[in-house]
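User: quick one
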Amino acid sequence: MKLLTHNMLSSRCIKGVSVGYPLKISAKNVRLVNCDFDTDFTVRIIQKLDWNALWEAAESVGHADDIPKNLSDIDDYDKNDEFLRKVHHVVLEVEVIEGELECPETGRKFPIEDGVPNMLLNEDEV
Amino acid sequence: MTDHDTLTQPQEGDFVSLYCTLGRGMDPFVKAELLQVEQIKILKAIEGKIFFETPTSSANIRPTTAERVLVLIYHNKQQIEPNTPAPLAFTQLQKMLTNGVPWERSVRYWRLLKDEESEEKVLARLNVKVSGGKRKIFKPERLAGSLSKCLRLSVQSLEFVARGAQVSIDVHVSDAFVTVGMALTSGTLQFGLRSTTASAMAMCLTLSHDNLRFFERPLSTGEVILDPMCGKGSIPNAKCLLRTVKIGVDNDPAQLAVAKVSNNTLLLLADATKLPLRRDLVDHILCDLPFGLKYSKDGFRTLIPDVMSEIVRVLKPGRRAILLFARSERQFLKECAENCGLKLMRTFEIMLGVLEAEIFVFLKNNELT
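Assistant: Done. Structure below.
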């Protein structure tokens, strides 16, 4: 699971959950992969990210040093190649292979196996 | 189209006549792909085929929504009367396919386009298709054998074989035309039916060509595309969706295991009726919805509205959902969509093998959140 994926996930599908975001990450196995860098693509992705959730996720997998806690700390980030490459790395090249995601409201845990989050619900949760 | 044969060796930069075969309903997509190539000229379109001329330098075009691409050898109106006895009909067909037909030049172009430098005879197998009323006169297998024998004498650069062929020579005899081509792609379908259909659906997002007259703007870099029932991932892997974020969701881990994960394809094991995604997150939806063949009637009638409801929840207002569905259930889908606040913009009737299908292009109401 890339951190980009995590940034979009929500557990609001569980009965009784109002927001369900962001999910907490417990990573048992994290892998780094190579992914071609694309400036324009990275700039567009940043515009879609919930930065706070991204930073918390990066911290939980040990990669928070790569990016600032607040996006506003970077001026003209779209022109800052070094910053963009760091974001690219965190968002696309850090993968949680094994671990868990936890609903912030119910504590329900969703396993991550072979890099794929299992978000299937039980009958009593829907 | 030129019919004469010449003995000059084809050169890079020459124009070569090719054609695509395509499934029913795929014409606008194949045309739109072809017209992206510079200097290409579409000459003619008939049912199941589009003929075009292109510089040899661009002749490696492989439209993802076409079945096959071939070097054109012969195309002309059918000249055999309906009640012609088979022996006479065959003689007429033989004359059509030998008198003045540029076989040798076509083989030379084929060699050029396939980078075949060998001067030895090309091993070819005739692939004969007979359609319409001509099926009463010609049997494909028998016709293939007979044509192979007569062409063997007149085409020096080809050796006709039953097995081990390097190339298929397609001969299609219909009520209206006779068309012969030398295949540049292998197999019946160059990309597979699911991939071809997925490409057509994806093109509903990428092209704003006049022929398609879809939307005001094509797909932008970094946009998020969701397939909530992605199966083995044909749709997220469509080639025209480069530089986007693709999310594939399926509730079958075996299917997801097959789905190829590109660097921009994110896979989730989840239920399409309970998507674990935030509201108004996704820029576009592409989905091959179940046709109901594997479900009970009640189950199907519940599943589709639930999936549509989730699609609308996660889709940004003013954005598109491109859905493939059974044509027979068109009205049911339209009602589900309207109930959720989706407006039908356009449909394309296509064939998915023998299944009558339709690509539906919906727009989420701008005011809906």
